[in-house]
Amino acid sequence: MTDAVPPKRQPTDWKTDTMQRRIRARYRAEKRFRFAGLFAVVLAAGFLAFLIVTMVSNGARGFTQTEIALPVDFAATDLFLDPQALRGPAAEQALAAANFEQAADQAATAAYGEIGPELLSNGAWLRIRDAVAADHDLLNGEHIFWLQASTDVDFGARGDTGTRRAQRPERQAMIARYAALNDAGQVRRGFSWTFLTASDSSDPTLAGIWGALKGSLLTMLVTIALAFPIGVLTAVYLEEYAPRNRWTDLIEVSINNLAAVPSIIFGLLGLAVFINTFHLPRSAAIVGGLTLALMTMPVIVISGRNAIKSVPPSIRDAALGVGASSIQVLAHHVLPLSLPGILTGTIIGMSRALGETAPLLLIGMRAFVASPPGGLTDPATVLPVQIFLWSDELDPGFIEKTSAAIIVLLLFLLAMNGIAIWLRNKYEQRW
Amino acid sequence: MNHDSLSDIAEDHAVRAETPKMTARHVDVYYGANHAIDDVSIDIGMENVTAFIGPSGCGKSTFLRTLNRMNDTIPIARVTGEIMLDGEDIYKSGMDVVQLRARVGMVFQKPNPFPKTIFENVAYGPRIHGLSTSKPELETIVEKSLRKAGLWEEVKDRLSDSGTALSGGQQQRLCIARAIAVDPEVILMDEPCSALDPIATAKIEELIHELRGRYAIVIVTHNMQQAARVSQKTAFFHLGTLVEYGDTSGLFTNPVQERTKDYITGRYG
């Protein structure tokens, strides 16, 4: 200690110009920062609104279809079908043998002239067949069938006459044709159950989302059934039991890296392991689910470990202090308290898996699958792959189907997240 | 190992209690390379409240946690020596730690009720140890425990409220009720009042008085006045060693060791 007395400090004068400038600059900086944040939020909301508005305006039409009234008198067509045969055991064979397609074309020509068959969708005759199978009396006399219109008529129904596609002469003819039919009350537009119940088709008026939706559902079931328990148990083991050494460090680093691996690599892995080594069927939901489970598991492990880590040690102490065994501490306290965090990770992982396309292309889920998968090993496709396939189609009818499929995918995602968020809130506890 | 000095004195009289419930002999605790407890020998009497005092980091909490093997949860902690509960070595192989912790209950520094209902907090211990066979029986245990902890009148109408919604002092008494519910023989309290206001502290101290005799109670405290108020025996720890152990009144008025005198007169700590 020296005896020198430091010079007495002057009291700070907050009123000087420099001080005032500093203060103003500080407030300005704060304001700028707040506006930057607000701008980011508005921009993000704008993009989201743009996406939703575009999808809904394009996709809404994908859920509708145009139907044409076709009067059919089977007596006037070449169709020969004995009503007696339909009652016997050979009914299916008789139906399959009857040429409904030709009959429909003939009826269409009779009703609408030369252009008639072109007005109808390629698979419209299937509806006649199904109706006849259900009601044999339709074979007698003339009956009106409402059948799917072809894409071109559908196009006319849309009324967007301004686009370049619509300017083509053959389209113009169709648009005029639709107007005439509409005036005569021979067309109607309505909700398309076909879209929700059918599978992929090369004809957009017959294409539906059900096959892909079911494929997605089965794939997600496999994914969550594997990734969730394995991920949670891995997280529990690493966090609660594993000794801290070089091996567990290595495992930890590997899992963290695994979560960052591009998804297409998992597709290659799935192809090499599940299909080439284990000879599981190609294009099947089980292989897709296994591959996506590999991809989702690290995300669940990481979020699970963080959630387990964030359970306050005092709760563990409390449980140990009354004599709970380590498994009881885990099952009664740590897991229930970390469940919200684990579920958040699961939501993120599953959402990513649901929207994943690349790895599934590699394991053959991009095949044209015209019927919904009956089980885990049947050929299947999933919603994002279906969207990808449809977006590649030339037929303009697929444009709106693509948007409609995106809406279905987003709704699926919302439903899945809704369940997870509901579960999370149910188990959320404060301490 | 160095067994002279205090330990030899200890063998004579200093560490003895009249009816020892727990006896510790030549206990050392290591955290990795850190020698946290150095050759401590002490008796915990059945009829007493025993207070552990000492400056921060002196090892009093560490030693307390060896008494119900809570240190087992720290991987790098190693305990040597001998700690007996009713003549049975609690560190012998084959000792059931779960049962030990039911017999030697613990109350922690920060109130740590489970984020469950008040009822569930108290019922948890009896339930996992199968101490009741029916719901009415369990309800009786819960009520008795809450009464002993002096909390019953305050919470009897809201047993299904969350335990974390109580005030700090009530939470700590809930934790005491939770410890009592498994019918322990010894209750270890690790600075139970350090997070509480003076009124809540007074209630806990009153409670400790009432519980005395039914349970052997060991309380770690920073607060020398508290040690003087609630305990009959006091142990002064410093730098991992037991410096002095004796009747509370004697230790505070007439300490034998120089270091004890320095500490209780506020020279350090």
Question: Can you lay out the helices and strands and say which pair or pack?
Answer:
The complex is a heterodimer of chains A (431) and B (269).
Chain A: H1 17-59, E1 64-73, H2 83-87, H3 91-97, H4 100-112, H5 116-119, H6 125-134, E2 142-148, H7 151-158, H8 164-167, H9 169-183, E3 187-191, H10 193-197, H11 210-241, H12 246-258, H13 263-277, H14 285-309, H15 313-321, H16 326-354, H17 358-362, H18 383-391, H19 397-427
Antiparallel strand pairs in A: 1-2, 1-3
Chain B: H1 5-14, E1 20-31, E2 34-45, E3 49-53, H2 60-66, E4 77-85, E5 88-89, H3 97-103, E6 104-107, H4 118-128, H5 135-148, H6 152-155, H7 168-181, E7 186-190, H8 198-211, E8 216-220, H9 224-230, E9 233-238, E10 241-247, H10 248-253, H11 258-264
Parallel strand pairs in B: 3-8, 3-9, 6-7, 7-8
Antiparallel strand pairs in B: 1-2, 1-4, 4-5, 9-10
Task: Please give a structural write-up.
The complex is a heterodimer of chains A (431) and B (269). With 431 residues, chain A is mainly α. Chain A folds into two domains: 64-191, no CATH class; 210-427, MetI-like fold (Orthogonal Bundle). Chain A has 19 helices and three strands. In chain A, strands 2-1-3 form a three-stranded antiparallel sheet. In chain A, helix 18 packs antiparallel against helix 19. Chain A is extended and about 125 Å long. Chain B is an alpha/beta fold. Helix content of chain B is 38%, strand content 25%. Chain B has helices at 5-14, 60-66, 97-103, 118-128, 135-148, 152-155, 168-181, 198-211, 224-230, 248-253, 258-264; strands at 20-31, 34-45, 49-53, 77-85, 88-89, 104-107, 186-190, 216-220, 233-238, 241-247. Chain B has a six-stranded mixed sheet with strand order 6-7-8-3-9-10, sandwiched between helices. A four-stranded antiparallel sheet of chain B has the order 2-1-4-5, with helices on both faces. The longest helix of chain B has 14 residues, at 135-148. The A-B interface holds A 243-244, 312, 314-325, 328, 332-333, 337, 429-431 and B 68, 70, 73, 75, 98-102, 105-108, 110, 112-115, 124-125, 128-129, 162, 164, 175, 178-179, 181-182.
